[in-house]
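Hello, quick one for you while I still have it in my head. I'm working through a protein record and want to make sense of it properly. Would you mind checking whether the tokens look sensible for this chain? I owe you a coffee for this, so here goes:
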Amino acid sequence: MMFNEIAMKLAEIDFRLYLINLFKNIITFFILPAHYFLIYGNISNLFSLFLGLFGFLLAYHSIYYLNDLMDYEEDKNDEIKNKIKPLINKRITKETAISLMFIYSIIGLSISFYVNTLFGFAVFLSLFFNFLHSSNFTRLKKTKLCKLNFFFLQSSKVSASWFILSNSLLNFPFFLVFLYSSVYLFFYIFYKNIKNLDNYKIYYKIKLLGIPVILFFILSLFVYPYKLLLISIGCFSITIITFYIYKSKKFSELLTIKIGNYLFFISAFIIFLFSVLLCSSQSVALIDNELNKTFEPISKNITILQEKIIIDFESNFYKLAKLSNSMNPSWTFPIENFKFPPS
């Protein structure tokens, strides 16, 4: 009863969608810097990191205006979207949305490329995949390619901050990136099908999306050294997700969305505090050392395979870049900006 009363009060709060998305993007941006800090123990170029955060937030904010413009005709007939989207409920005009979309994207991308080329390119990729997802020219969100494109979208988005700190693909946390993208994809499809959860086939398909989440979690557990932290976050997340899915069937669509957003932020805050406590504990470090010794044979094989794939990619990339430069001398591909030595 207490949860129901709290939930109903939350439903009365004016939901500032863009502000919610801003905080989500800040959390997303700092996932790989947190990984970097756990692995290497320090982050030296903090100015570039926070300048990159500013550019990333500005550039990515333009996407919300693009989505609202592309979905305008569809959203204006949706009772829920009318309550939470500023363009639909006339808080801003179409002209204002178009202007803001271009201003945010141009300034954000300019700052991102100023930070460095790789970071700017990753931010650009996240915008590009979003364009493919929402644009009326491609509209991949309405096709069978939706899930694949959305996975790439989230992967490029969460990856961007890594390239402020390192230009190394050999050390790049692929499994962590894919884990995050799989979790986000799961909730995106869940959100899009809130009205149809009573349909067994749809509900079953959503549950199948949990398979890549489990796969990439296990691979992350094998490869990355902060194993106890991953296990703790995994157990906590499973509890929250199970609770949310169970409760979502009992509430309205709008209330389900609101509760999901609040749970996201509360969970992120709890995970942050818990991570700080775990990482500062000497006992946790000793347990992690023992777990790393146990998993070392499997971890080593996975790492060797990953490095082989990356080295092959790097070799083919340079061949293509040199071929491009030889065929078009008037514009040379900046190969020097795309070197990936271990840092």
Notes: The longest helix spans residues 282-327.
